[in-house]
TrEMBL record:
Protein name per Swiss-Prot or TrEMBL: Universal stress protein
Domain annotation UspA: ranges: 4-148
Record lineage: Archaea, Methanobacteriati, Methanobacteriota, Stenosarchaea group, Halobacteria
Pfam families: Usp
Gene3D superfamilies noted in UniProt: HUPs
Family designation: Belongs to the universal stress protein A family.
Signal peptide limits: none
Species annotation: Natrarchaeobius chitinivorans
Highest taxon in the source lineage: Archaea
């Protein structure tokens, strides 16, 4: 299977592991000359908090999720690494529950691979709190690469 599109989906918990995520995406996308979709997924409350923190104009009727994602520090850090590695990318933002939103984005961009980050969780933690990575692994329309934080 030839990779054409790789979706790298990040959220609020990925700030600390953005270097590892970028390295994984470069490793997957570069040899295949695939383009990358950098996506930041926000829940409704995360989105409202980020819009306020980034001081978007509150008088605007609607603020585009792609625009919010473009200004987010995690995406900007990933952009620098992809630029240095000469990997083509576009930026997307999405608002909704993390797992289903990532799966929807993967379908919308016709991704050949999804890359997500996560942390090790106990079985009880997964059962009680759910797991975005688990949701994506089980529901994505393509193979998924899971990147665990290096501090685990």
């Amino acid at each position: 299977m030839t990779l054409q599109t790789v979706l790298l989906a990040v959220g609020p918990g990925d700030v600390e592991r953005s270097d590892e995520l970028a390295e994984a995406v470069v490793e997957v996308a570069q040899p295949a000359d695939a383009s990358v979709v950098l996506a930041h997924v926000f829940t409704d409350s995360e989105y409202d908090e980020v819009v306020t923190r980034l001081e978007f104009d509150a008088s605007r009727d609607e603020i585009d999720a792609d625009e919010v994602a473009m200004r987010h520090s995690t995406i900007r850090n990933l952009q620098s690494i992809l630029d240095e590695s000469d990997v083509d990318y576009e930026i997307r933002g999405a608002v909704g529950d993390h797992g289903p939103s990532i799966v929807d984005l993967a379908t919308a961009v016709d991704a050949d691979r999804v890359v997500v980050g996560g942390r090790r969780r106990s079985p009880t933690g997964k059962a009680v709190f759910g797991s975005t990575a688990q949701e994506v692994l089980l529901s994505a329309p393509c193979p998924v690469t899971f990147v665990r934080s290096s501090d685990e």
